[in-house]
Write a structure and sequence with these properties.
The complex is a heterodimer of chains A (about 500) and B (about 425). Chain A is built from 16 helices and 20 strands. Chain A is of the alpha+beta class and about 500 residues long. In chain A, a hairpin with a 5-residue loop joins strand 9 (about 170-175) and strand 10. By secondary structure, chain B is of the alpha+beta class. Chain B has three domains: about 1-205, 2-Layer Sandwich (Uridine Diphospho-n-acetylenolpyruvylglucosamine Reductase, domain 3); about 210-300, 2-Layer Sandwich (Alpha-Beta Plaits), CATH 3.30.70; about 305-410, EIF_2_alpha (Alpha-Beta Plaits, 2-Layer Sandwich), CATH 3.30.70.1130. Chain B starts with a helix and ends in a 15-residue tail after the last helix. The model of chain B has no long low-confidence stretch (mean pLDDT about 95). Classes of the chains: A alpha+beta (about 500), B alpha+beta (about 425).
């Protein structure tokens, strides 16, 4: 891989401007700083250029230019990623997709939409909402994150318990391949011909090419929604309740857990009506037909009571429901009340191991002299321990990293995974051997070589590597610009 | 030592079949050199390694129910039969996941899961014979895919033996997982061309309290198309929406109305009742009859209704189109066949745009030319609507007369690169799949 010399840069800038226009290229150091990290601000690196294409042809031309120069490139959406997945590892180009943000087509009869990758996730639901439809994957950053970025990480969200993650909603993509060729993978029909290339592309963390058009399914909004809050004296009871709900044959739309530290932070900040003395609460949402909704809610209540819930209440109206969800969704912002910084983990475990693993997480963090807040997608076993720390205290960040690695190991030991929805990126690349053998990784590498043989497309991600030109801690946590604007949160 | 001797050393004399024992493993008229039945994953790995050393191609074989899909193999080589790997390895109901070996039949797997109140929401035809590995490799599905999706939506972890004899794991045991590339997606529908699936972990669902399948008859196919559109746009949440033409309905023992919608519902009893009643109001407005209950056995026969319509089928084609054009695709497709003097039968998982069409042979050895011409026209119609169509069963003369698989274009070149990376010597089920991979 080449790096650009200072003397070469002006000529390259002119060529990039010829492709995307003079307003479509950034190269001043202060401008580049904005793109030095994603939502995981522990890792930073500076690109040489940020380019803003407005069409697949422009993306392809930029990619061909990068290939000619032998310089790396990475596509970027809103930069809300949490694993350093769109970090410009070794200089080169950041290709921002934010000017390609249109809804190109909505076909209500066939319940599909064709969108550009820079479209903000929530904006798609807004666009189709008036006709009674929505886009199901709902990462908590959905007010800011883009569908293209969701494609890269195969994003989830609270409602993926019932409706699946991004890949379950993507039928086809127009992709600029790492060599600049424009290729359609899949299409508008439900079944792709041949290998499931859309399925493999989604979640490839930007290493297989750059999506320029995306065909997604849109769903009819459910007739009815019911939201239940179950309050527990002990966190193990809440964990047991999750399996009890599943065992009763119920698949709620969402089952979220919030622990005491988080409840108290949320109540201090926003007053959403969670009991401050509870050890844990489950926020459970049912959706579907009006008929049968009460019966299902009764079964949920019974399962929670049997697991030892001291109180189970149902949101009486949309205002109460929104308030409960606000508590869940604003937990990140609330941590600011109790800690100057935190690091969010993203492990996944089999649901039945929740009681054990939550206990282990709390032990591990305590052993490192730190505190942890848990707020996560309990229904599908996707943990988000948030380790609280003070970056100004020497050595504390290193203890956070050590505790995080131990938590990842526990997830792996119980048959889980090191990432449920945030991706591996650069953050967890060295943890990959916790769950994958050398042979597993070798097969993934061969797959990558089929898409990206020169390795110029988002290098340094996903695979374990020791060599890196990236500035990696000990650097103080800084909230990302979009966090401080209140546009996004970390889980 | 010859390859056969090496194989016998791996699996034992009794599990290497040769000569007349191979009659049930003949593929498109080609007899394999041997069939081998390993009893463990390590044995599969050893067999693949030995075959690769000697350059003998391998055909993975589950129940054989989809072995006729695809281009005829240039050389049958070694049939690798996975039916001895039939263990349910792990089923933890509280996790709604199960891990099973590839050779377990779908019927056996479902029976074990059902005993604990759960099921794998995948209902391919021929469940008593089809194996889990085969169903994943062929991406087989059934009517309930309308609500529950296909293998890609349910497979969360896979163990495969790759062309170099390595045992490789992809995905995991948890329902949500984005660590590394999604290898389970790669192997679903890859027809054994990238590796031999030996074990799989799948997402499960709780058994519903109630389930019902009803039929709505229409005097005109186009009315059924309108009803289908209104049904998909309604608040109803059917788990299956199949459309049958006259011959297909007849094959199921139903009155051979020009069009029949078979609609399934599951959930709480009260939900099923309400939805069936609501369905009546949706379809009656479009000229449909009152929904009539169908026997539970009908579920398993829906997907193969068009094939079962004729005693002497001449070819079967699967077409993938947009749901909104399913009825007109059926209507025009049947006309196309009639113009060439051929009968056809059509059935569809209509809500997801998946059609199966069967042509009837008019003679014991029908002329392949008109059959191929009709299939080509059907394919052109599917392509015109942004879809694709492939021949999923036909005698050799028909398969020789047109490409079995549709043309995958630029994506096909990428598929070839993937195949070259994973199977550089081209020995895993070579030449049978899309683009010749």
């Amino acid at each position: 891989m080449a790096t650009l010399t200072e003397t070469r840069k002006p000529a390259l800038r002119r060529e990039l401007e010829a492709i995307v226009g003079t307003s479509g290229v950034l190269s001043e150091p202060d401008e580049l700083l904005v793109y030095e990290s994603d939502g995981l601000t522990l890792f930073r690196a500076l690109a040489d250029f940020i380019v803003f294409p407005t069409s697949a042809e422009q993306v392809a031309a930029v990619v061909r230019l990068a290939n000619r120069e032998g310089i790396p490139f990475v596509a970027r959406g809103a930069g809300t990623g949490l694993a350093g997945g769109c970090l410009p590892t070794e200089g080169g180009l950041v290709i921002s997709m934010m000017r390609m943000n249109r809804v190109l087509e909505v076909d209500y009869d066939n319940q599909i939409a064709v969108v550009e990758p820079g479209l903000v996730n929530l904006h798609l639901s807004w666009a189709v909402g008036p006709r009674g439809f929505y886009y199901a994957p709902d990462p908590s950053s959905q007010q800011a994150c883009t569908i293209g970025g969701n494609i890269a990480t195969n994003s989830g969200g609270p409602h993926t318990l019932k409706y699946g993650v991004t890949v379950n909603h993507v039928l086809g993509l127009e992709v600029v391949m790492p060599d600049g060729e424009i290729v359609w993978l899949g299409g508008k029909t439900r079944d792709a011909l041949g290998y499931d290339l859309p399925g493999v592309f989604v979640g490839s963390e930007g290493t297989f090419g750059i999506a320029t058009k995306i065909v997604v399914r849109i769903l009819k909004k459910p007739q009815a929604v019911k939201t239940v809050l179950a309050v527990f004296e002990r966190i193990e009871q809440a964990s047991v309740a999750v399996s009890a709900i599943i065992a009763r044959g119920l698949v709620p739309a969402a089952v979220e857990m919030i622990d005491q530290l988080t409840i108290q932070a949320v109540e201090d900040a926003f007053g959403c009506g969670y009991p401050r003395d509870a050890a844990a609460a489950l926020l459970i949402e049912l959706d579907g037909l009006v008929v049968g909704m009460d019966t299902q809610a009764e079964r949920i209540v019974a399962a929670c009571r049997e697991a030892g819930a001291r109180e189970v209440r149902t949101a009486a109206d949309e205002t109460q429901r929104q308030l409960l969800w606000k508590g869940r969704k604003s937990a990140f912002g609330a941590y600011g009340r109790v800690s100057p910084a935190y690091m969010v983990m993203d492990g996944v475990i089999p649901r039945t191991r929740l009681p054990y693993v939550i206990g282990r997480v709390n032990e591990i963090v305590a052993a490192h002299g730190l505190r942890v807040g848990n707020v996560f997608h309990a229904g599908d076993g996707n943990l988000h321990p948030n380790i609280l720390y003070d970056p100004r205290k020497p050595g504390e960040e290193a203890r956070v990293m050590a505790a995080g690695a131990e938590i990842m190991k526990v997830c792996a030991e119980v048959g889980g995974s090191i990432s449920g929805e945030h991706g591996i990126g650069i953050e967890k690349a060295d943890f990959m051997p916790f769950i994958f053998s050398a042979a597993d990784l070798a097969l993934m590498q061969r797959l990558k070589d089929a898409f990206n043989p020169r390795g110029l497309c988002n290098p340094g991600k996903v695979f374990p590597t020791r060599k890196s030109c990236v500035e990696i801690g000990p650097v103080a946590y800084r909230p990302h610009a979009i966090e401080t604007q209140g546009l996004a949160q970390r889980f | 030592m010859s390859l056969l001797d090496k194989l016998r050393a791996v699996v034992g004399q009794a599990h290497v079949l040769t000569g007349v024992e191979l009659s049930r493993y003949v593929i498109e008229g080609r007899t394999p050199e041997a069939a081998v039945l390993p009893g463990s994953v390590d044995e599969v790995a050893a067999i693949v390694a030995h075959a690769m050393e000697t350059g003998v191609p391998i055909v993975p074989w589950g129940g054989g129910s989809a072995i006729g899909v695809g281009a005829p193999p240039a050389r049958a080589g070694l049939v690798l039969v996975l039916t001895r790997l039939d263990a349910l390895v792990e089923h933890e109901p509280g996790d709604l996941t199960a891990t099973a070996q590839a050779g377990i039949t779908i019927a056996a797997l479902q029976a074990a899961l059902r005993a604990r109140g759960q099921w794998l929401s995948l209902d391919p035809s021929d469940a008593a014979r089809a194996t889990l590995g085969g169903v994943l490799a062929a991406n087989a599905s059934g009517p309930r895919r309308h609500l529950y999706g296909t293998a890609r939506d349910l497979l969360i972890g896979v163990t495969v033996v790759t062309a170099d004899g390595a045992v490789v794991h992809g995905g995991g045991k948890v329902v949500k997982n984005v660590a590394g590339y999604d290898l389970p997606k790669l192997f679903v529908g890859s027809f054994g061309t990238l590796g031999v699936i030996v074990e799989a972990t799948v997402k499960l669902r709780p058994l519903p309290d109630a389930e019902r399948l009803v039929a709505v008859r229409f005097e005109r196919l186009q009315d059924a198309g309108v009803a289908l559109r209104n049904l998909l746009g309604s608040d109803l949440i059917p788990n299956a929406v199949d459309l049958l033409d006259g011959p297909s309905a007849g094959a199921l023992g139903l009155p051979a109305a020009p069009a029949t919608l078979a609609v399934g519902f599951d959930g709480l009893g009260e939900q099923v009742d309400w939805q069936v009643a609501e369905l009546a109001t949706v379809v009656v407005r479009c000229g449909g009859a009152k929904p009539a209950p169908l026997a539970a056995e009908t579920w398993a026969r829906l997907a193969s209704a068009s094939r079962d319509a004729f005693d002497t089928p001449a070819a079967v084609m699967t077409l993938s189109v947009l749901p909104a054009v399913v009825a007109e695709t059926m209507e025009h497709g049947a006309q196309t066949a009639r113009k060439r003097g051929l009968m056809s039968a059509w059935c569809a998982h209509a809500g997801v745009g998946h059609l199966t069409a069967t042509l009837c042979a008019d003679a014991p050895r029908p002329d392949p030319a008109p059959i191929a011409a009709v299939l080509e026209e059907w394919r052109a119609a599917a392509r015109a609507g942004g879809g694709h169509a492939s021949v999923t069963w036909a005698p050799l003369p028909v398969k020789s007369a047109l490409p079995v698989w549709d043309e995958a274009g630029a994506a096909g070149r990428l598929m070839k690169r993937i195949k070259a990376q994973l199977d550089p010597n081209n020995l895993l089920n070579p030449g049978r799949f899309v683009g010749g991979v």
